[in-house]
Write a structure and sequence with these properties.
It comes from Brevundimonas faecalis. GO terms for molecular function: glutathione transferase activity. This protein has a 4-stranded mixed beta sheet, covered by helices on one side. It contains 9 helices and 4 strands; from the N terminus they run αβαβαββαααααα. It is globular, with a radius of gyration of 19 Å. By secondary structure, it is of the alpha+beta class.
């Protein structure tokens, strides 16, 4: 009976994916879009890659500005649905493929915390990160979207210390978003090499999906550089 149920579920999943409109990922290698491509791989989602050569400024040309007027990647399109903003893309894709188990259902007690930490990435971590990286004076604490950098980071550290994943024992799409981001920001020295951050990032970046995309990114980045003679 169990084997029959599993095969039936597999057939339903395959049928749903066959009937689903294709996903296009607008992409540049070694950018914020890397995390989105890793997520697509983790979800087992079929997608088409529309690569943009940032070294030639392709993301600032009219063709792509019609997709995202900000000239930023990633962006994804599925049929008439066009989604920009990394946080929105993460939620959109994970909900599109619930069978992958990377998104808590609406009635799951983890759904609220899951949404909280994905939103925290965009509303607190990213603004704090840019102020820190550019040595900008942050806004007064009562006007800052992230209070202050140390508090923002300490709050994240306390959550990750509960581990092994952001929400405890269960890995979600939020971990792909955070794990890839922390890997890059630790490497560039913006986030300190604290054991909690380093071990968490390594847990995500050691996964086969990240390793595959890292290798593919290196090859694509070299091709893009060669296209401009560099």
């Amino acid at each position: 009976m169990g084997a029959y149920d599993r095969s039936s579920t597999t057939r339903l999943m395959e049928t749903a994916m066959t009937e689903m409109q294709p996903i296009t990922l607008y992409y540049s290698p070694q950018s914020r879009a890397t995390g989105t491509r890793v997520l697509l791989e983790e979800l087992g989602a079929p997608y088409d890659l529309h690569a943009l050569n940032a070294k030639t400024g392709e993301q600032r040309q009219p063709a792509y500005l019609a997709i995202n007027p900000l000239g930023k990647v990633p962006a994804v399109r599925q049929g008439d649905a066009l989604v920009t903003e990394q946080v929105a893309i993460t939620l959109f894709l994970a909900d599109l493929f619930p069978q992958a188990g990377l998104t808590p259902a609406v009635n799951d007690p983890l759904r609220g915390p899951y949404l909280r930490w994905i939103a925290y990435y965009g509303s607190s971590f990213e603004p704090a990160l840019m102020d820190k990286a550019l040595n900008r004076e942050p806004a007064p604490i009562n006007q800052s979207p992230y209070a202050d950098y140390d508090t923002m980071l300490a709050t994240l550290e306390a959550q990750l210390a509960r581990g092994p994943y952001l929400l405890g024992e269960r890995m979600t799409a939020a971990d792909i978003l955070w794990g890839v981001a922390l890997s890059w920001t630790i490497m560039f020295g913006i986030v300190p090499k604290k054991e909690t951050f380093v071990r968490y990032a390594e847990r995500i970046t050691s996964r086969p999906a990240f390793q595959r995309i890292t290798a593919a990114d290196a090859e694509m980045a070299a091709q893009h550089a060669a296209a401009v003679g560099g």
